[in-house]
Each structure stands twice: as structure tokens, then as C-alpha cells.
Amino acid sequence: MENIQAQQAEQNQAITTLQNQIAALQQQLNNASQANNNLATSSALKGAKPDKFSGRNARSWLKSLQNIFSSQAVMPNDVQKINYAVSYLSEDGLQWWELVNINNNINITTFEDF
């Protein structure tokens, strides 16, 4: 009986941890969306629209982002670049980003790391 209760307690703790991670991811997505809105309305990336990234052809997608960034009169900082790029992730690309954010051992702070 005690073994079952211990297993249930572990499961409840795991569920709580997952719920907290989901809430944190939702907040990060909201923050990224907010940052993208701020970035899109600023002069930094006006008119630039890369394709959504679904997990295929990463090099060409990243190159298109770099071209957008380098063509701007004001170069966006790394946080702006990452938030902008994240707003164009979909499918497998978005799933990858969510896994990166769940894993506390991975810290992406520069666009180069992205």
C-alpha cells in the first residue's frame, strides 16, 4: 500500500512539474509573440517576412534570416533576432524550440547559438 502511495506521489509530482513547464513555455511563447510584435512595428525589420520554418532546410532558412537582418538599416540585437526567428517556427521547428526551452541545460542567448 505504501509503495502505491509513493508511486502516486511521484506521478503527481511529475504532473505538477510538467504543468509548470507547460505554463513556462506558454509564457515564453507569449513573450516571443510580444517581442515579435514590437520588432515588427519598429524600423528594425519592416517588410521582411521569411517563410515559416517547419524543420526542413534549416541552413537556407537561417541564411534567409541573416539576409533579412543584414539588409536592415538598424541591426537587431540577438534577443530580437531569436524572438523574430521563433515567431516563424512551425511544426517540427516549433517542437524543437519547445524542447530546448524545457531542457535547463541548454541556454541559447545568441543568434549564432540558435
Condensed summary:
With 114 residues, the chain is mostly helical. 65% of the residues lie in helices and 0% in strands. It is built from four helices and no strands.
Q: Which structural class best describes the helix and strand composition? A: mainly alpha
How many helices?
A: 4
Helix content: 55-70%
Q: Quote the distance from N terminus to C terminus.
A: 48 Å
Radius of gyration: 18 Å
How do the helices and strands follow one another from N- to C-terminus?
HHHH
Report the uncertain regions: 39-43
Strand content: under 5%
Quote the average pLDDT: 78
Biggest β-sheet description: none
Provide structural commentary.
This protein has one domain (2-102). The chain is built from four helices and no strands. The chain has helices spanning 2-41, 58-70, 78-86, 91-102. Helix 1 (2-41) crosses helix 3. The radius of gyration is 18 Å and the shape is elongated. Mean pLDDT is 78; it is low at 39-43.
List keywords for this structure.
114 residues, mainly alpha, 4 helices, elongated
List the helices and strands and how they pair.
Elements: H1 2-41, H2 58-70, H3 78-86, H4 91-102
Helix pairs in contact: 1-3
